[in-house]
């Protein structure tokens, strides 16, 4: 990767890694997972990304910025493990090749212990967005030529 200038050698050293002692990393469907998940990985589209960002507060101008990055997508899991925060990757070329991500999909990781509360906050945000949609449709109709 360094030879094609995808990463500088210095940047590679700064990539997040799984620091927690482990003998293996187990992946599986959340609804069938036999263990308590440390991290929940989701494939979402751009609209869903906006709703999640609203639900976790990163769209609040009084709070910090969003934790989103491009590459490497595999760093999204250790980043969430290290920070305890939701992370998002736009999906690097490797992730898109191996997983078949579409151009409109992103990878989201959520700390396992935060997943249920995020779902509750998402319900509020989805309801609020649905309530605002008719107003914006009416406004849009005023500007059509």
Describe the 3D structure.
It is a single chain. This protein is an alpha+beta fold and 145 residues long. The chain has a domain at 40-139. It is built from five helices and four strands; from the N terminus they run H-E-H-E-H-E-H-E-H. Strands 1-4-3-2 form a four-stranded mixed β-sheet. Helix 3 (76-83) links the parallel strand 2 and strand 3 (87-89). It has helices at residues 9-14, 46-56, 76-83, 93-99, 115-142; strands spanning 39-45, 68-69, 87-89, 105-111.
Brief sketch in words of this structure:
By secondary structure, this protein is of the alpha+beta class. It contains five helices and four strands, in the order H-E-H-E-H-E-H-E-H. It has helices at residues 9-14, 46-56, 76-83, 93-99, 115-142, and strands at residues 39-45, 68-69, 87-89, 105-111.
Map the helices and strands.
Layout: H1 9-14, E1 39-45, H2 46-56, E2 68-69, H3 76-83, E3 87-89, H4 93-99, E4 105-111, H5 115-142
Parallel strand pairs: 2-3
Antiparallel strand pairs: 1-4, 3-4
What value does the Rg take, in angstroms?
18 Å
State the secondary-structure class. Answer: alpha+beta
Unreliable spans: none
Order of helices and strands: HEHEHEHEH
- Measured between the Cα atoms of the first and last residue, the distance is 50 Å
In what range is the share of β-strand residues?
A: 5-15%
Largest sheet: 4 strands, mixed
- How much helical structure, as a percent, in the residues? 40-55%
Largest beta sheet: what is the strand line-up? 1-4-3-2
User: How many DSSP-defined strands?
Assistant: 4
Q: How would you sum up the global shape? A: globular
Count the helices. How many? 5
Average predicted local confidence, pLDDT = 88
């Amino acid at each position: 990767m360094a030879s094609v200038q995808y990463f500088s050698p210095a940047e590679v050293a700064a990539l997040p890694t799984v620091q927690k002692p482990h003998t293996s990393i187990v992946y599986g469907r959340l609804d069938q997972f036999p263990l308590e998940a440390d991290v929940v990985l989701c494939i979402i589209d751009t609209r869903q990304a906006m709703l999640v960002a609203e639900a976790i507060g990163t769209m609040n101008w009084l709070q910090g910025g969003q934790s989103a990055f491009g590459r490497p997508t595999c760093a999204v899991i250790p980043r969430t493990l290290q920070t305890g925060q939701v992370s998002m990757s736009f999906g690097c070329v490797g992730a898109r090749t191996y997983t078949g991500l579409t151009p409109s999909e992103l990878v989201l990781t959520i700390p396992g212990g935060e997943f249920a509360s995020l779902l509750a906050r998402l319900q509020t945000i989805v309801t609020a967005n649905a309530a605002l949609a008719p107003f914006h449709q009416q406004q849009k109709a005023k500007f059509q030529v």
